[in-house]
Design a protein that fits this description.
The complex is a heterodimer.
Chain A (H helix, E strand, L loop, with lengths): L1 H42 L6 H21 L10 H29 L4 H23 L12 E3 L1 H8 L7 E2 H23 L1 H11 L1 H6 L4 H26 L4 H6 L1 H11 L4 H19 L3 H7 L18 H15 L11
Antiparallel strand pairs in A: 1-2
Chain B lengths: L3 E8 L7 E8 L4 E5 L6 H9 L4 E8 L2 E2 L5 H7 L1 E4 L11 H8 L8 H10 L1 H5 L10 H13 L5 E5 L7 H16 L3 E5 L3 H7 L2 E6 L2 E6 L1 H6 L1 H7 L3
Parallel strand pairs in B: 3-8, 3-9, 6-7, 7-8
Antiparallel strand pairs in B: 1-2, 1-4, 4-5, 9-10
Helix pairs in contact in B: 3-6
Classes of the chains: A mainly alpha, B alpha/beta.
């Protein structure tokens, strides 16, 4: 009997520290990587400003959240930030459309090479980053309110009588649910609507799309709008789950790019697969497995060390290593990339 | 007055002039073929009609109007469809979606046109849910031509539709093109397979270094000993 409880406890430990965080972090990365992959597929450049676009959208959402909170508006058990999201999205759309008009359009009309676009996007990245730090400051901001947990560790323990608790935060559950809805909507849009098909056609073969009468300006505009929606929601979910700090969002660029490339850049399904691959690798490699093995192994074999493969300080190295491996072994990514 | 015509066109892609005063025309229900040696400016002449290069001299007339200043997009909207030589299908989209994209500018019901297309190219009905990138070369060319026809164009321009396909497939494609002519569409083709192309052509243009060398009916050009000796290998 004790062997069974030990086994279940080990499973609960893994669920609590790997599966649940992996799923929610993976969903956040997937949404971010989708934005990167869309811009790459349609506008044909690696958008380094994407992390800071997320930061900007999240900041706007936070500001509106605070305003709503000061007016006493809330969503009960759900975070007020959900109510503020539309305003955050609208302002991010405005930001992206204005940057496109003032920066990218010039290079598009001059038929600049992708590297030029990429460098330009780095300029946009620094500028957006500057705006965010100027407005909200470089420090951590918390804006989560409402219920904290769907299942708290204490309740789980008292319910099951196990010694290990499983906790699922509202922010984690919300992340996963919102990601599923958003991805389903995006795929419906790309597969079924006229504009979505035009975007796929434009991504597949720009010249032929133009010969078919697709309006390139419209495709570009819609791409930025979708990117703004994805970035703001991904950023806000990440901020609710962890906390909001502008620098963290800049750092997110690496795992997001890794996710997009690992999955096959330009391929939306690839971005989602890549997001989970990167997230689970990071979480699994940096988790200390000592307790799991204490449950699973007989007492005499109890491990001495933490059984942690890599310190959490090195979690970004995981994205790098996976990125390098994929580029060496399968440069097109897990799913074939370069088209929508 | 012909249906679509480029008159005395001079121009290139920015560098030296490729077209040095060439004239091309095609009428409704007619197949016009542009032939000539490599580098004669055959494809360039066709692209000039579509507005893909700036003309220094000459004009393009369509349905009696001067369309020289219209962009390629506007000319497409006017009813000119173009099938490029390469990359002429959306490889990551299904055959059906390719056809849908062909009708992108249309707001009416495309079901009837779709039926006609499937009748003309039965293989496409069979493969409609397959990705165009997974098809054979000949089938892809059929998708490419069908995509262009979906817009119900008045003029269909084909840039070497038989490049890289087997002789059997080529014959089949030419048969299809003849059937398309029956519907009253004006067809303009650039072809490497000059003999076979002139064989089905109502009108033929032999271009040499950007100028018209011979212009006549397809049959007359085929019979012309000089054309035979210089361009058709005897």
């Amino acid at each position: 009997m004790e062997a069974i409880t030990d086994f279940v406890s080990a499973i609960v430990l893994l669920l609590n520290f790997i599966v649940v965080p992996g799923l929610s972090y993976g969903s956040q990365l997937a949404l971010g990587a989708l934005g990167i992959t869309l811009v790459f597929g349609i506008l044909r450049f690696a958008n380094f400003a994407h992390g800071d676009t997320m930061a900007f959208g999240t900041m706007m959402t936070i500001l509106v959240t605070w305003w709503l909170q000061s007016k006493g508006v809330n969503l009960g058990p759900l975070p007020t930030a959900l109510l503020a999201l539309p305003a955050g999205i609208a302002s991010t759309i405005l930001l992206l459309v204005v940057t496109d008009r003032t920066v990218y359009r010039y290079y598009r009309h001059n038929k600049a090479v992708p590297v030029t676009f990429m460098i330009a996007s780095m300029g946009v990245m620094f500028m957006t980053n500057g705006i965010v730090r100027f407005v909200i400051g470089p420090n951590d901001q918390r804006f989560l309110d409402g219920e904290r947990f769907i299942v708290s560790a204490r309740n789980f323990k008292s319910m099951t009588g196990l010694s290990e608790g499983l906790s699922i935060k509202v922010s984690q559950g919300l992340t996963i649910v919102v990601a599923i809805i958003l991805v389903a909507l995006l795929f419906w849009f790309l597969q079924k609507t006229r504009t979505g098909k035009a975007m796929r056609a434009y991504s597949d073969n720009e010249d032929l799309a133009l010969l078919s009468g697709v309006d390139p300006d419209r495709v570009v505009l819609v791409t930025w709008i979708i990117t703004a929606i994805l970035a703001t929601i991904a950023g806000t979910l990440y901020g609710l789950d962890k906390s909001f700090k502008p620098f963290t969002y800049l750092q997110l660029l690496l795992p997001m790019f890794a996710a997009a490339i690992v999955g096959g850049i330009g391929n939306p399904i690839g971005a989602i697969v890549g997001g989970y691959v990167i997230a689970f690798s990071e979480v699994m490699v940096t988790y200390a497995y000592k307790k799991v093995f204490i449950y699973l192994l007989p007492q005499s074999l109890e491990p001495q060390g933490l059984l942690q493969l890599l310190s959490t300080d090195y979690k970004f190295a995981v994205s790098f290593v996976i990125l390098v491996l994929v580029l060496l072994v399968r440069p097109t990514g897990i799913l074939k990339g370069k088209v929508l | 007055m012909s249906f679509l015509s480029g008159e005395n066109m001079v121009g290139g892609y920015g560098g030296a002039d490729i077209l040095k005063g060439c004239s091309i025309e095609v009428n409704e229900g007619e197949i016009a073929v542009i032939v000539g040696p490599n580098g004669a400016g055959k494809s360039t002449a066709m692209r000039a009609l579509l507005g893909m290069l700036d003309l220094k001299q000459g004009s393009v007339q369509f349905r009696g109007n001067d369309i020289s200043s219209l962009s390629p997009q506007d000319r497409i909207a006017e009813g000119i469809a173009f099938v490029p030589q390469t990359s002429n299908v959306f490889t990551s989209m299904t055959v059906f979606e390719n056809l849908e994209m062909g009708a992108f500018l249309r707001n009416d019901d495309i079901a009837e046109t779709l039926e006609q297309i499937y009748e003309l190219f039965p293989i496409l009905a069979e493969k409609k849910d397959q990705l165009a990138g997974e098809l054979s070369g000949g089938q892809r060319q059929q998708v490419a031509v069908a995509r262009a026809l979906m817009s119900q164009p008045a003029v269909l321009m084909l840039d070497e539709p038989t490049a890289g396909v087997s002789p059997i497939v080529m014959d089949e494609l030419f048969d299809r093109i003849l059937e398309v002519r029956q519907t009253g569409v004006a067809i303009l083709m650039v072809e490497q397979n000059a003999r076979q192309a002139l064989d089905i052509a109502d009108r033929g243009f032999v271009l040499v270094i950007g100028e018209n060398r011979h212009t006549d009916t397809g049959a007359a050009l085929l019979a012309d000993p000089e054309v035979r000796r210089s361009f058709l290998g005897g």
